[in-house]
Amino acid sequence: MEKSIDIEALNQQIYADSEFVERLREETAKVIIGQNHMIERLLLGLLAKGHILLEGLPGLAKTLAINTLSKCINAEFSRIQFTPDLLPADIVGTLIYNPNKSEFTVRKGPIFANFVLADEINRAPAKVQSALLEAMQERQVTIGNDTFKLDEPFLVLATQNPIEQEGTYPLPEAQTDRFMLKVKITYPNKDEERKIIQLVMSGDKLPEVKAVVSPKEIIKARSLVRKIYMDEKIETYITDIVFATRFPKDYGLAHLENLINYGGSPRASINLAMASKAFAFLQRRAYVIPEDVRAICHDVLRHRIGLTYEAEAENITQEDIINTILDHVEVP
Q1: Which CATH number is associated with domain 2-216?
Q2: Tens digit of pLDDT for each residue in 29-65?
Q3: φ and ψ at residue 313, rounded to 5 degrees
Q4: Which end of the chain is more exposed for a tag (fewer CB within 10 A), N or C?
Q5: What is the DSSP string of 203-226?
Q6: All structural domains of the chain with their residue ranges
Q7: Which of 49, 28, 47, 58 is CA-nearest to residue 212?
Q8: Which fold would CATH assign to domain 229-328?
Q9: How many angstroms separate the CA atoms of 286 and 230, rounded?
Q10: Alpha-carbon distances of 146 from 27, 91, 130, rounded to whole Å
């Protein structure tokens, strides 16, 4: 009985403190037409303290979306165009010699921002990718002998172009695992595209967006997200989904064994739980339900399941495998 009273009190608190989500959605909608899924996933990553790998064709407002969101939160935005000749120092910064003072001074790189867009991350070699991923994981950067903490909130949005593979360096599986979500972006529908044309043609500049949330509010919301109640049955449901990617035979899915090369790591379980809590927060609710887990399952797992040659030969995708698992694992 006491637990239900606590949940009710938490529900009221979260309903009140999540009000800024609607303000953010309304403000970004001034500039971003459609792409609600992408905006929602950006908010998920922001609230769950996780980074996002975005896969989509050119011209789908990836840069515009994260830039707009940073303006709405009054945060600093930085864009890094990844190229084959990029060096780690171009991202994190370097030491510059000052001949007047006969000493080295630190010049910070573009990683020192709240929102970092790593455009076409697979165009840079492994050493550069590692420099970015280390900053993502440790949330700090070492330049020379000095270590600098990165400002919070800190969100990296890395993009991949799925159609151009020449001259690219695909991210290794262990590195893609560090991204909380892998989001696939699709084309807008006809009505949305017509509105995009009207918006762009209506003036020289896009509408101005104003800051409607402060970084402090985001940090406060993050601590609330962690307090959201998750029942043991939901925890079991999450672990069952992830274990079904590793040992499908144990869940009556023996036919998937020849299709899955490797399943989700423990990070998959952690991120599925955190993203489910953040999704519940976006719904202004203080507890997680199975539908929250199912809603974000594809984005959390699609880059954590390795396919065999047999699966690729049969044109079976990670989405197909996740759908099969969700259909068979018992819902609490």
Answers
A1: 3.40.50.300
A2: 888 887 788 888 888 998 998 899 988 777 777 778 8
A3: -65, -30
A4: N
A5: -SSPPP----S-HHHHHHHHHHHH
A6: 2-216, 229-328
A7: 28
A8: Helicase, Ruva Protein; domain 3 (1.10.8)
A9: 9
A10: 39, 16, 19
